[in-house]
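User: I'm preparing a small set of examples for a lab meeting where we compare how different chains pack in three dimensions. I only have the primary sequence for this one, and I'd like the structure in token form so I can line it up with the others. Please keep the answer compact; I'll paste it straight into my notes.
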Amino acid sequence: MPFSHTTAISSTTALAAASNTSPTSNTHTIHTTSTFEYLLYLPKNYSSTTTTKLSKPLPIVLFLHGADEVNKGKVLCRNANGRKSLVTDGAWRLRTVKGMLPALVDQIKDESNDKALNSDDTNFPFILISPQCPKKVRFGSSIALQDDIVNLIQTTIIPTYNGDGNNVFVTGLSMGGCGTWSIATRHSNFFKAAAPICGGYSGFKENILQLQGIWCFHGANDSVIPVTQSDVAIKQLNKAIEMQQMFGLDLLNLVPQEEEKEEKKEGTIVFKKRSPIEIKYTRYENSPSPAKNMIGHGSWIQAYFESDLLNWFEAMSQDN
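Assistant: Understood. Below is the structure token output for the 320-residue chain.
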């Protein structure tokens, strides 16, 4: 499998601050919509040539950061040549904070550069979208922000960069973990699987069972967001599945598909049974502490750097 599972994080710091509207493969670039900015990463096998449009579409991962990564102003960073510059402490911050998924991608890039040029052993085969949560809102509570993010992926990322609309995954930590639960519930027909990490979940709705997979992570020693919140969420999911099976309520596992009638040459809707949702829960007895006041709240470091989460996403994207 192509992913590195080490807790060591590269010392790569923020590179440029300017917006780049012509992204290239294996590179993070920063972009802006009318409501938020975001990091965009295109995998090594991406090419802007027309032949790419004929190749297999690329799976997409949406990453939602935590509250501590909300834009805080400006910060002094070093670029690739070691020169210091003052940059906006926005989406670029996600590349420098320990445990963020963009930081992991940079580590994978560094490891890839140390290998033969034709080696894909450490390739990150997804388009990665990492939005910067605007001030005064939260990923989990702002329906407008959730809709804007999904709209960006649908109308820009998928058609422009050969993204695979059938293989869109979402994951996030802490505040972003709450947002992962929420956006996956609201847009359960859009996402294939979700991986919420150390995030609370309330307002359970059964339509989240339309996903093909949920993998939840949380540290039992978390002093910021109690692990009981994930315990309850997983219990609700399993109970809903049990009730469906008990009473034969299978409607949520039916996927509408268009078929053409030969005799009438017109479209009709048929229903195909989707694969049962896979529920996974990793409950760490001890998780790292990112800060003195955040005891046990670093389960995302274990999830992103030690678990098979990214391999799980990749395997699911190949199972259409």
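A couple of notes for your slides: The radius of gyration is 20 Å. The chain has a mean pLDDT of 80.

User: Perfect, thanks.
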